[in-house]
Amino acid sequence: MEINKGLIKINLDDAFIGGDEIKAVSEQAVKCHETVINKSGKGNDFLGWVDLPSAITEEEIKAIEETAYYLRRKSRLIVSVGIGGSYLGARAVTTALGHAFKPLLKKKNRYPEVIYAGQNIGEDYHSELIEALNDKKYSIIVISKSGTTTEPAVAFRILKNHIEKKYGREVAATRIVAVTDRQKGALKKLAGKEGYKTFVIPDDVGGRFSVLTPVGLLPIAAAGFDIRKMLEGAKEMEEMLKSSASPEENPAVLYAAARNILYRRGKNIEILASYTPSLNYLIEWWKQLYGESEGKDGKGIFPAGVNFTTDLHSIGQMIQAGVRNIFETILWVDKSHSTLAVPEDAANLDELNYISGKQLHEVNEKAMLGTVMAHIDGGVPNIKLSIPELNEKTLGALMYFFEFACAVSGYMLDVNPFDQPGVEAYKRNMFKLLGKF
Fold it and tell me: Of 201, 202, 322, 419, which has the maximum CB count within 10 A?
């Protein structure tokens, strides 16, 4: 079974799922789609992301673009401070679209480098960051709804201290932008006191669904990427996914249905596999989106990620012949940006002349097809998702697709896809151990 909607294609031919199985869950899938659209299910006060692509205003887009331009003019580095959904969406896009070796290029970079802090509590990491910032012009985007989440709060306190010593308190305040709650929270209070430029995290959008708010759009725009194109792709996907609830016409509903069919067969681990190295952080974003949304009440499909062909030489054996509780979703990009062929070599000592003249993208595709064949032989169901190429528009569409499918899939599991009670447990223990009362 295949659905091809231009910006995304889903193929279940190798998923070991019959049409009758799709029909058996179709009624439930359609109801869950309607629950998302009507915002009538569990956690419905966090479904604002459903309408984000079409609801964002020209005024909001311009404000983000103008602030991004302002930060770019003042900075060679922009530090984006955040964790989880306040970090992964932006990093997924900037990594996917950025030059893999940008810092090594001799030509002057047109846009500043966006780097990240507050996604860990590593002492060496943040010490080395401060060292790197000592002789660089830089600005800060700090992203936190509460302002008290430990990792970004610690990082921002350190960075705030550094930037104020570097530029003075008043000038430093012009180099800090806060993305936070509309009315309350420690960061909102601090931003008001210090006079930081601020953007609002909508009350009805949770962190892992926030990439199409200023949480993701501001760092992405600051890095020099076209957020209008990203929103355009997301809007096209929104309109298409809202137009039909049928698994035979809606790729997000079909993906959600397929995942749940395989889960009910005992396939409780999903591996998202990409053959495009720059999608590494897109996979990390996807892992948070699905793991934090579905892992509740003793239920959930465990989200894992691999980068092929690299990881074929590490955990490929486990996928091929280990415990048969996994299924695989391939994320494939149809067209590469560059053209690079394997050269002819007269000596042919490496015995590669059989592929000389072939583009690396073709070689990579054959590696993908060969891997799928092997994994099917090993009893691993394969779902294939394809996008035409990698750009702002397709990434916007893909990320909205994953968000929508995640909501439908979570409702099919009968969990609340929009809370994360388990995350609070480690925080309570950490606070107690650190002596917070």
Answer: 201
